[in-house]
């Protein structure tokens, strides 16, 4: 499976780009946010990719970060969420927004994506709540676009045991570290993720210690 591509953007459309990789053009579909993040035609870009294989079609989907790619794969595991719906959710909320909405049980935020009804949005939140923390804690960095052609550009990397590893992701941020601390204290992953997301929303610039304190207050028994 193709796990990452790097090359020159030949042209851009509303929902996909054509990337020239050593003379071979790869059509890659992307969310609105990813499309906005990509450079202009004629410039070089790198994308993590996921290949959809069906009897009648092969489609590549591209993502600027491994976190976005993993959310795409996880969203597509929910009944009623196909590739188009997944990209709509990611395009509306972004990877961080998806994690926050699921952790907080905010299915209305998911429903804001084009083509997503209330029942599907509720399934996304209910089915992924316990799986979300692992992806939220990944803290993966972006696939860097090369400003000038380099020898490593124009390559297709096959995902598998022999595939070269992508650049090391950036270290976990305050939310991921706070989440890890709370789960180590024995809180359920979904419960801890919800508290951390709420605390971060109320204090966007808070450090790890402040997030943990705020989340613990939210998790404290009421009454």
TrEMBL record:
Residues 163-172 have a biased composition (Pro residues). Residues 1-64 are annotated as: Domain I. The gene is ruvA. One of its GO terms (molecular function) is four-way junction DNA binding. Residues 172-223 are annotated as: Domain III. This is Holliday junction branch migration complex subunit RuvA. Residues 141-176 are annotated as: Disordered. Homotetramer. Forms an RuvA(8)-RuvB(12)-Holliday junction (HJ) complex. HJ DNA is sandwiched between 2 RuvA tetramers; dsDNA enters through RuvA and exits via RuvB. An RuvB hexamer assembles on each DNA strand where it exits the tetramer. Each RuvB hexamer is contacted by two RuvA subunits (via domain III) on 2 adjacent RuvB subunits; this complex drives branch migration. In the full resolvosome a probable DNA-RuvA(4)-RuvB(12)-RuvC(2) complex forms which resolves the HJ. NCBIfam families: ruvA.
């Amino acid at each position: 499976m193709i796990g990452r591509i790097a090359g020159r953007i030949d042209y851009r459309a509303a929902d996909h780009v054509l990337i020239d990789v050593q003379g071979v053009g790869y059509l890659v579909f992307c969310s609105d946010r990813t499309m906005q993040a990509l450079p202009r035609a004629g410039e070089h870009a790198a994308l993590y990719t996921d290949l959809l294989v069906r009897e009648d079609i092969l489609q590549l989907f591209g993502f600027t970060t491994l976190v976005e790619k993993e959310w795409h794969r996880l969203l597509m595991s929910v009944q009623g969420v196909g590739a188009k719906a997944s990209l709509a959710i990611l395009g509306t909320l972004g990877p961080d927004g998806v994690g926050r909405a699921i952790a907080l049980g905010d299915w209305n935020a998911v429903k804001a994506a084009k083509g997503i009804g209330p029942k599907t949005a509720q399934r996304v939140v209910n089915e992924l709540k316990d799986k979300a923390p692992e992806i939220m804690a990944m803290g993966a960095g972006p696939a860097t676009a090369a400003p000038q052609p380099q020898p490593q550009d124009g390559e297709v990397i096959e995902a598998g045991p022999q595939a070269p590893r992508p650049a090391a992701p950036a270290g976990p941020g305050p939310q991921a570290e706070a989440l890890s601390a709370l789960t180590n204290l024995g809180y359920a992953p979904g419960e801890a993720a919800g508290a951390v997301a709420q605390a971060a929303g109320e204090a966007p610039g808070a450090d790890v210690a402040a997030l943990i304190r705020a989340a613990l207050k939210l998790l404290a028994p009421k009454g």
